[in-house]
Design goal:
alpha/beta, 19 helices, binds adenosine monophosphate, 7-stranded parallel beta sheet, Rossmann fold, 468 residues, 13 strands, 2 domains, 6-stranded parallel beta sheet
Length: 468
């Protein structure tokens, strides 16, 4: 099928040609016609499948057809996304596709001053792309109302729930008018997501599923390095220095502090790199992303939340510097490479206390990750001697693993030997730095506390951990 065969208005066809699309991707082929018939849609798809155009093009077409005019401080289509990077990216797509029309777009997200966002909403917009917190904030300030909404898109629903946005989503949904077209996208459909979808979509939505989880994984060559936590930095450095074909490398770190530490190690070794995470300003994050896209830097170090959904073509290698304790996150991470039909390589580091995470990942993906070239271990400097500080850091790691263990399965009786029960923590030991988006345990200094919503998976886990 060609785009030119789809019943899309001339200005949209022109924009499609301008961005260089010829053939719709499978999700576009399966969705666009149904959406043009004003049906609700449940899309099970990851980023990289072309899902943004799959919903943006029909929404733009219907907005053009309806002939309605936007009222001040309202929007006609709302796209809800979990992160600012994603929101910016999706608004960018809308802008490109709407470039030959009079349709207006705006993007609102937290972490920046809201003055210009409010200004953009004064006259109303056709398409509003938003993250949930800032949207509710601006609704509360009466800067925007959803009463005239015609289209509601919830994108990356599984990630929204992981990040604890469920209550915000419910609040937004409660504000939507009854008569609207709904689109719901998620990369995975566990039970809680299915339930959420049922509260948003009208009965019998069109269900479109593309690229099931196993498909990208099969295209990704994987390697595993079993390595002590303290030697991960040296291993990453060695692999990057040895393999010049690693040109566009995304490194995942579990924590913001970890991401900064990795960039320091790499910078010292002369590797051009930058980090993106929640503590970086929006401008710094955009700058880092831009430099990575244009290959001014070779390595982008990111936390899961910051990297979520970022659209970078041709990522040659993904490193799991730390393994995630949610196995689905691993699938999301390595799906950053091998996009658009290309092959990719994912390299995972596993320290002894991450073995359990590794087993969960291998179980989910049904792939046994082969070990990488063992000769590289010989080239690494011996591990540094433990200092009181590093002992403390490692103790934190073990304690966190212990907590994760408890959270994952209360029924499991035996603890790994090297894991200290929480009660035996050294008196001055502090819990580890919280993962991005995770609420720290009670008693953490205020700077570590993050907004988190009751009922979120992350919060539930933390509550359980705290009560243990
Ligand atoms: P998405 O899954 O929406 O994040 O899209 C992933 C990438 O695919 C983006 O860079 C889009 O510009 C690109 N893309 C989307 N649809 C098409 C298409 N039909 N042909 C070529 N590239 C596309």
């Amino acid at each position: 099928m060609l785009f030119s065969e789809l019943p899309l208005a001339n200005p949209l066809q022109r924009a499609i040609r301008a961005v260089g699309y010829e053939h719709p991707t499978p999700i576009q082929e399966k969705s666009i016609l149904s959406l043009l018939e004003k049906k609700d849609l449940l899309g099970i798809a990851q980023t990289g499948t072309g899902k943004t155009a799959a919903f943006a093009l029909p929404i733009l077409q219907l907005l053009l057809e309806s002939g309605k005019v936007r009222a001040p401080k309202t929007c006609r289509a709302l796209i809800l996304l979990p992160t600012r990077e994603l929101a910016i990216q999706v608004e960018d797509c809308f802008r490109q596709y709407a470039q030959f029309t009079a349709i207006s777009t705006a993007c609102i997200f937290g972490g920046v001053n809201d003055a210009s966002q409010k200004r953009n909403l004064i006259r109303g917009v056709d398409v509003l792309v938003a993250t949930p917190g800032r949207l509710l904030d601006l609704i509360g300030q009466k800067a925007v109302s959803l009463k005239a909404l015609e289209f509601f898109v919830l994108d990356e629903a599984d990630r929204m729930l992981d990040m604890g946005f469920i209550h915000d989503i419910r609040k937004v949904v409660a504000l939507l008018p009854q008569n609207r077209q709904n689109l719901f996208f998620s990369a995975t459909m566990p039970e809680d997501i299915t339930k959420l979808a049922a509260t948003i979509l009208r009965p019998n939505p069109v269900r479109v599923e593309v690229a099931p989880q196993s498909t990208p994984i099969e295209r990704i060559r994987q390697e595993l390095y079993r390595i002590d936590k303290r030697r991960k930095g040296a291993l990453l450095k060695e692999l990057l220095l040895e393999h010049t074909e690693m040109k566009k490398v995304l490194v995942f770190s579990r924590t913001k502090h970890g991401a900064d530490k990795i960039t320091r190690v790499l910078e010292k070794a002369g590797v051009k790199c930058a980090a993106i995470h929640g503590n970086k300003s929006q401008n710094r994050r955009q700058e880092a992303l831009g430099n990575f896209k244009s290959e001014k830097i070779r390595v982008l170090v990111a936390t899961d939340i910051a990297a979520r959904g970022i659209d970078v073509d041709d990522v040659s290698h993904v490193f799991n510097y730390d393994l995630p304790d949610v196995p689905e996150t691993f699938v999301h991470r390595i799906g950053r490479t091998a996009r658009a039909g290309k092959d990719g390589i994912a390299i995972s580091f596993c320290s002894p206390d991450e073995e359990q995470d590794l087993r969960a990942i291998e179980k989910l993906t049904r792939v046994k990750i082969p070990e990488g070239d063992k000769a590289v271990y010989e080239k690494l400097p011996p591990p540094q001697k433990e200092t009181p500080e590093s002992e403390m850091r490692n103790a934190r790691g073990r304690m966190s693993r212990n907590d994760a263990e408890k959270r994952a399965s209360k029924s499991r009786e035996k603890r790994p030997r090297d894991v200290q029960p929480r009660d035996n923590q050294p008196r001055d030991a502090q819990p580890r730095e919280p993962r991005e988006g995770e609420k720290p345990a009670e008693g953490l200094p205020h700077k570590h506390r993050r907004r988190n919503r009751p009922g979120s998976r992350a919060r539930r886990r933390m509550r359980e951990a705290a009560s243990n």
